[in-house]
């Protein structure tokens, strides 16, 4: 039995717990280089895609299926049907992307003093 306890003692940390927590906190919170640039690029891409999807939704709502561009799902050569559900889906996804961009571009939460 004592051999098992000795093996456990080898892996125990000799530093006090507060120092371990401080070291772990600094590793977790240390931002990597380019974090702000990556976040801005992600926000910009979300805004562009959100606006594009809202524009696609408008095209679905005002254009019959026979006049939709060929690359749009729902294009049918001799149909006069409008694709309201396709438009609603594109509109909801566009709003979700714009909401994501808005939340990501907000101010950073204040960190409590250590």
Short characterization:
The protein is mainly α.
Write the layout of secondary structure elements.
Elements: H1 2-10, H2 17-29, H3 35-62, H4 84-104
Report what the structure shows:
There is one protein chain. This protein is mostly helical and 114 residues long. The protein has a domain at 34-107. The protein contains 4 helices and no strands. Helix 3 (35-62) runs antiparallel to helix 4. The two termini are 42 Å apart. The model is unreliable at 4-8 (pLDDT under 50).
Keywords summarizing the entry:
62% helix, elongated, mainly alpha, 0% strand, 4 helices, 114 residues
Number of helices: 4
Rg calc: 27 Å
Average per-residue pLDDT, rounded, comes to 75
How large a portion of the residues is in β-strands, by DSSP E? under 5%
The best one-word shape is elongated
Percent range for helical residues? 55-70%
Runs in which pLDDT lies below 50 for 5 or more consecutive residues are 4-8
Biggest sheet, in brief?
Answer: none
What distance lies between the first and last C-alpha atoms, to the nearest angstrom? 42 Å
Q: How many β-strand runs?
A: 0
């Amino acid at each position: 039995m004592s051999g098992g306890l000795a093996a456990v003692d080898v892996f125990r940390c000799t530093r006090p717990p507060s120092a371990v927590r401080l070291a772990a906190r600094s590793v977790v919170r240390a931002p990597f280089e380019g974090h702000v640039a990556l976040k801005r690029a992600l926000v910009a891409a979300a805004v562009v895609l959100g606006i594009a999807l809202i524009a696609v939704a408008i095209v679905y709502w005002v254009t019959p299926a026979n006049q939709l561009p060929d690359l749009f799902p729902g294009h049918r050569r001799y149909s006069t049907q409008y694709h309201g559900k396709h438009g609603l889906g594109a509109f909801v996804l566009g709003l979700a992307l714009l909401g994501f961009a808005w939340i990501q571009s907000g101010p950073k939460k204040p960190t409590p003093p250590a």
